[in-house]
UniProtKB/TrEMBL annotation:
The organism's taxonomic lineage, starting at the top: Eukaryota, Viridiplantae, Streptophyta, Embryophyta, Tracheophyta
Presence of keyword ATP-binding: yes
Family indicated by similarity: Belongs to the AFG1 ATPase family.
Keywords for this protein: ATP-binding, Nucleotide-binding
NAD as UniProt keyword: no
Protein name, per record: AFG1-like ATPase
Pfam name, any one: AFG1_ATPase
One term under GO cellular component: chloroplast
GO MF entries: ATP binding; ATP hydrolysis activity
Length: 431
């Protein structure tokens, strides 16, 4: 109760006016309205950090150049010109926040709650990390041939959004790893403030990745410019939803089942082959699509050289994907497992809908995917277990091993009554 009592006294000052606001106050309101569960001390502790950051940003909004209407375009152009003629560091007077913890602990919800409480006039952006990096690579391609395209891209990003809220910070791509240090050094030097969520502590980012020694300076920069906070909760809030099997069918050779349900979703519309434009002129072929719904086999969407850019492009046109034949994952289809994890992340980020047939439950799909630590603690083989099958199926991969818990949790939530009702509300209101 003592921690709850702090909510009532929260007050902030903006433009000389004292107001009662911030993530703590909004959290209390949602609990009172029954929108959130009460009593998670870990979330309360994290909210106190978010409230601290909120208060500092409100107090130092002018110094941080947060309000896009506070200075004229002429002054901004003058500052931009002088910053390039006389290079100098102008790091923000406020440190950002890096939140990490297990799946379903409420990281994304807490960051969104914080972001939504900030003044609308601020230069702020909330974006999934995958999408952010796709945007960075697209900008780099656009400025190809410039002496230092990364500096130009960092300048563009910080001019548009001085406060960056990046969800699901996870580095698996060597191309991302090699540019992150220079990119964020430049962003921080431009005054950018970072708020990020991740499943991984900073020191564990890009663990065992290619050329990781070139990535390590980024970790030091991140810890220098952000307060690091772990959210430790024993509760996976996504698994508290009332999961049903209405959109997730278990078994083999269920193509007729998924086609029947797909046709029910599109109604009287006639599904036809379509194509979707993604980044840099690429096009993604959709075998069948109609009425905002697309039908793929697992091989067509996850066993081909596709990535986050293709999936984000897909969900710009479709709000539902029917996926037939999700297999049990192991060493033999590790690459496809990575793509499936990315696909689920993009579906969840877009609050889209997944209709699928799979060879097992979400947990069973990933039973053969383990981290190095898990593998070291596994029981030795017995005579009743096949050494050949173990060697073939078991996939020891740290990144995938950590990501699988998030994917299992999201698959569970995405198939819940609450999620599907929310999806219907979002896409009904958009039409």
């Amino acid at each position: 109760m003592s921690s709850r009592a702090k909510f009532a006294d929260v007050a902030t000052v903006y433009n000389g006016v004292e107001t009662r606001g911030g993530p703590l106050v909004e959290y209390e309101r949602r609990i009172a309205e029954g929108e959130l569960l009460d009593g998670d001390a870990c979330q309360v502790g994290t909210l106190q950090e978010l409230q601290r950051l909120y208060d500092q940003l409100i107090e130092k909004a002018e110094d941080c150049r947060l309000d896009k209407y506070a200075s004229s375009d002429k002054a901004s152009r003058s500052r931009w010109l002088w910053s390039r003629l006389l290079p100098q560091s102008s790091c923000a007077p406020v440190k950002g926040l890096y939140l990490y913890g297990g799946v379903g602990t409420g990281k994304t919800m807490l960051m969104d709650l914080f972001f939504d409480q900030l003044p609308a006039s601020w230069r702020k952006k909330r974006i999934h990390f995958h999408n952010f990096m796709l945007n960075v690579h697209s900008r780099l391609q656009k400025h190809k041939g410039v002496a230092d395209p990364l500096e130009v891209v960092a300048g563009e990003i910080s001019d548009e959004s001085i406060l960056l809220c990046l969800d699901e910070f996870m580095v698996t791509d060597v191309a991302d790893a090699l540019i992150l240090n220079r990119l964020f050094r430049q962003l921080f030097s431009n005054g950018a403030i970072l708020v990020a969520t991740s499943n991984r502590a900073p020191d564990n980012l890009y663990e065992r990745g290619l050329q990781r020694d070139l990535f390590l300076p980024f970790i030091a920069t991140l810890k220098e410019r952000c307060v690091v906070r772990e959210i430790g909760s024993a509760v996976d809030y996504r698994k508290l939803t009332s999961a049903e099997q209405g959109f997730y069918f278990i078994g083999k050779d269920l193509s007729s089942v998924i086609k029947k349900h797909f046709q029910m979703l599109v109604g009287d519309a006639q599904p036809v082959p379509q194509e979707v434009e993604v980044v840099m002129g690429r096009k993604l072929q959709v075998p069948l699509g109609a009425n905002g719904c697309a039908l793929f086999s697992f091989e067509e969407l996850c066993d081909r050289p596709l990535g986050a850019a293709d999936y984000f492009g897909l969900f710009k046109k479709f709000h539902t994907v029917a996926l037939d034949g999700v297999p049990i994952f192991g060493l033999h289809n590790k690459t496809a497992a990575y793509r499936f994890v990315t696909l689920v992340d993009v579906i969840y980020e877009n609050r889209a809908r997944l209709l699928c047939t799979a060879e097992g439950t979400p947990v069973e799909l990933f039973e053969n995917i383990v981290t190095i630590s898990d593998a070291q603690h596994m029981a030795p083989r017995t005579s009743s277990r096949s050494r050949k099958n173990d060697d073939f199926d078991l996939c020891v991969d740290n990144e995938l091993g950590f990501a699988k818990d998030r994917t299992i949790s999201r698959l569970t939530e995405m198939n819940s009554k609450e999620y599907l009702e929310q999806h219907a509300e979002i896409f009904t209101s958009d039409t």
